[in-house]
Amino acid sequence: MIFNTFAYYLVFLLPAAILYRLAPASLRVWVIVVFGSAFFLYFSYSMAGIWGALCLLIFLWESIISRLYRPRSRWCIVGILQSVILLGIFKYWNFFTGLAFFGRTDLIRWQGAFLPLGISFFTFEFYHYAWDRKANKTEAGTLGEYLAFILFFPTMVAGPIKRYEDFLPKLRKEPTAWTLDWERGITRILIGLVKKFAVADLLTAWTDHLNVHDILIADRRVLILWGLAYGAKIYADFSGYSDIAIGSARLFGIRVPENFDWPYGRRNIQRFWQSWHISLTRWLIDYVYIPLGGSRVSTPRIYLNIIVVMLVSGLWHGAGINFIVWGLWHGLLLAGHRLWRRFRGDPSSNPVAVFSSRLLTFVLVNAGWPFFCMDMNTATLFYRRLLFG
Amino acid sequence: MLSRFRSTIEYLAGERDACPPFLRGHIDLLLRCLVWALAMLLIYSFSGQSSKFIYIDF
Lengths: 389, 58
Hints:
Chain A is an all-alpha fold. Chain A is built from 17 helices and no strands. The two termini of chain A are about 40 Å apart. The radius of gyration of chain B is 15 Å and the shape is flat. Chain B has one domain.
């Protein structure tokens, strides 16, 4: 829940934002650290009990190790590996051991598996900092500044994914413009809550039907409606979430990256990914696509790199075959679009062509959502019913 | 036309700081008050059925 609870606003956001603005410069980062830690303990405990709350130690451990990072230092590699290993254990242990041992994993299965609050997102920030310190692309900052970066609670749970070199100057800057920041920030939070309550949650009445029983008895035309409803719901839900996170950060006087830029109106799949979950797309380009060679390798390798990046994106979204298929779908679309552009050149400005490409992009993106929101068997059934009755 | 519509929506939704030129003055204040009032009305009307944000589980 978190952003749709009174506790978030009354216990954490408002007191922290006011104190942050009133505190002297030397104490401001510690306001974020104290409230960020309390936020993590409170919501982790309410979701995953004492073990969830104890995961705060991951942040503390990571911040201690981060003080050893130097350009070209092996400690940076340790930092990168430990963040990936932690994510692997918590998120993928049962999935990969299940795949490796064909489901016969009683002895090594983690029965009480749980996901620490925000682990998929804070892993990105741990990884980014270690990588950029190794490449000497960002300064170390103080321990307090680093802790404030990783414990900044408006973006801790589900982004937008921040960059240290972008966040640090904002943290060091004296927060001014109370009136403008609060008016814009509160407006953004209210719009985010409207998207969640009045759009996303309302669409649940349709998306709840995306289960085996209802798919089996539904008319094919209704399946299209339910599929489209999920496409609208996930946009309203996640862009609403991002609005609240960005608006909350604004109350501190800190601007964090945007995550959405009218993605459903885009005229090709590449543009779609440049405007959907923008901070994730940029992270994947910088820390997966470019290290793989990016576009400076042979043509077949470029296509392979694109597909690998989207497979990573799919797997990151969830430990399930359906998420891998969803990632593969988008990888093939992006590779197909690149191939198309190679042979057809720049896109046409003919209004009919523009409209058609926007519509086609919308349809193709929405065709992928069933793999995102249902397990593999249910998604396969959905498509079997939709295509063959 | 479309970009004007877009910048107006983004301004009223708190995404942009710069007010579109044709909204300056009393109409700007009036519209912003209207957005807050409408948003609060919608939140109040629909808040009883809220569910978890999807990306919290990722």
